[in-house]
Amino acid sequence: MKLDRATLKQQIHTQYAREHAALGEEGTLRLLEQARQWDLSDTLRAGGVVVFPHAGVAECGHQIAAAVHAALDSGADRVVVLSVLHAFNDEMEAARIRVANGGDVTKEAYWGIQGPGIEGERQEWRHDHALISWRHFWAAETKRRGIQGPEVIERYPYLAGGKPETLPGIDELARLTEDAVIVSTADPFHHGIGYGTPPEQSYMPHEGGLELARKTLEEGIALLAAGDYWGYNQHCVTAKSDARDAGQVFRYLRGPMQGAIRDLTYSDATELYNQPPPTWVATALFDWQVA
């Protein structure tokens, strides 16, 4: 059955609102405290990148909160958040497929970088959900600390296509990040029946699924660490990772780095996709340190 992308987008936004309401202030602060088990501020100070997920907040909120702490504790005056831009219309998805199949990315209408303050007709970023929970924890933690916090700039690259250096707007983004820290977001492994994995190849998270996820994520880390942008692009296709563009861009901007998984769990998606289990997303906190 064809995926109704517009309806899915609405359902995800509804789910986020419900989950944040259920979390409340007490739950938000609890996850912010839980996130203190990691201190990744040195990674950002040294020019590295922290990558957080954007799936169900009850499952991965502590990972998102860890990135918030890292950015605030880094002492930076500016934080650039490189976000996923989801394909929530059929043409955006068709463009991704064409590029992954070797098509000419320069002919694609969605090729480029979106975000607040960027002029142009492309404004799909306004309706994306990837940074809703990031903004939630950022607002809660700056309020708790009684500070305004550094400047935060959101950017949404699309269709890096193995050549992030050619993305329209990449030079301006490079200038923005010169004196800034970079965090990014990724749901790097979507798995199971609801995501099109054959039933016989679908694993429950604690029955081989998370082991497969870790192995897959480590393969992606190795490709990106090596600067193999095209290989990483194709890895994201097979891993059903939404990080193909943001990952290529932060690796290009920061140069040689080595990534590590600091935390790995999962978020169930059976209800969202109205599909039987296993249908889930691996959520991970990544620490990318300058090599």
How is this structure best described in words?
This protein is of the alpha/beta class and 291 residues long. 45% of the residues lie in helices and 18% in strands. The protein has one domain (5-290): Protocatechuate 4,5-dioxygenase, Chain B. The protein contains ten helices and eight strands. Strands 1, 2, 3, 4, 5, 6, 7 and 8 form an eight-stranded mixed β-sheet that branches. Helix 1 crosses helix 3.
Compose a concise summary of this entry.
The protein has 291 residues and is an alpha/beta fold.
Which descriptors apply to this entry?
291 residues, alpha/beta, Protocatechuate 4,5-dioxygenase, Chain B, eight-stranded mixed β-sheet, 10 helices, 8 strands, 45% helix, globular
Which class do the helix and strand fractions yield? alpha/beta
Number of domains: 1
Distance separating the two termini: 45 Å
Number of helices: 10
Count all strands and give the number: 8
Topology:
Elements: H1 5-34, H2 41-45, E1 49-52, H3 57-73, E2 78-82, H4 90-100, E3 112-114, H5 132-145, E4 151-158, H6 170-177, E5 181-185, E6 189-192, H7 205-225, H8 229-239, H9 244-254, E7 257-268, H10 270-273, E8 279-290
Parallel strand pairs: 1-5, 2-4, 2-5
Antiparallel strand pairs: 1-8, 3-4, 6-8, 7-8
Helix pairs in contact: 1-3, 1-5, 3-5, 7-8, 8-9
